[in-house]
Amino acid sequence: MRGGDGVIAIAAGALNGHAVAGKRVMDSPSKSAARPVDYNRPGIELEFVDPCADSAWDREAFSHPDATLFHGAAWARVLTATYGHRPRYCRFTRAGSLLALVPLMELRSPISGARGISLPFTDFCEPLLFQNDADQAGNHLKPLVDLLAALACERSWKYFELRGGPLRQLSATPSVAFYGHSVNLTGAQALFSTLDPSVRRAIRKAERSAIDVTTADTREAMIEFYHLHALTRRRHGLPPQPISFFLNIHEQIVANDLGFISMVRSGRRAIAGAVFFHQGKNALYKFGASDDAFQHLRPNNLAMWRGMTHLVERGAATLHMGRTSLRNDGLRQFKLGWGATETTLEYFKFDTTSSSWAADADRVSGRHTAIFSRLPLPINRLMGRLIYPHLD
What we know:
It contains 12 helices and 17 strands. It is an alpha+beta fold. The protein has 2 domains: about 5-175 and about 345-390, Aminopeptidase; about 185-315, 3-Layer(aba) Sandwich (Aminopeptidase), CATH 3.40.630. The strands form 2 sheets. Strands 3, 6, 7, 9, 10, 11, 12, 13, 14, 15, 16 and 17 form a 12-stranded mixed sheet that branches. The chain has a 5-stranded antiparallel sheet with strand order 1-2-4-5-8, sandwiched between helices.
């Protein structure tokens, strides 16, 4: 969760009745905004696309080898259905040929302001560049970024943020960085041999225990996972996302065979789970959660392993494990234990006031974690419903 100590101010406002739960009202930019921008620059044309209504978006996006489910319409539908964010997805062309696709959501909040994010609650979503010469990526990016900056000014955004991409070629300074991890999904036997010995021991211990693991795609399984998610978030000192977020994930992704839940049970009781997305050869590990009372049985390891083997069976080639704070060495080591390759994920925030790339902070901990870890679970869930519509 981003937003750091600002979460405390939002939570305080919510307790005093100043925050509103549910979808945001997508108001228009202020009347003082700049004149409408001509988005057809010499040589480059920009078209705004709503991927929820334009099937061509998915067809084009998923023709790119680096596209993940985050780039597609299903994830856009989750974000718009849960929070009412307005899609401003950008299609750049040159002489009729596709140059780039940039997923972008407009967020408007009376508390946190207006901005464009690619994309909120998304670990990474770098621009998809459709050109063959990687050394020329900077030359292609500059006019794209200029047009995005013009869009941000016209829409009265405080900033726009791109989560990933080769923007250093424009001498852009990252606002914040994270670790990224990915696993090459070879056959199950070969994959098991790449795991850290401690991870292999944990899997074997879980398999010998009186617990069962399955893959599920039902709404009931998603609700079970959400209860584990709420427990885990409180343990980490954070409120959970609203349950509507997870029900929309089920409706738009899991129910459409684009994801599944790896669920571990002791008897009939769900004790750990993991949510995976998949699109073509690229898969994503999005959420993990567990009941701390059963950690001695290593159910988290079993949930992850079952998810990986299921993805191998489905023909996935790469599993992206999301972002990890540079200060969260425990989570970093957990992911490295699965034979993951480590990279750096960089976010780039362009501030419209200063017309420059701005710095940010990774607020992995703070005063808010002490507060949320002590709140009763129903209050923690209420805070999540109140707070998350204003965050990204």
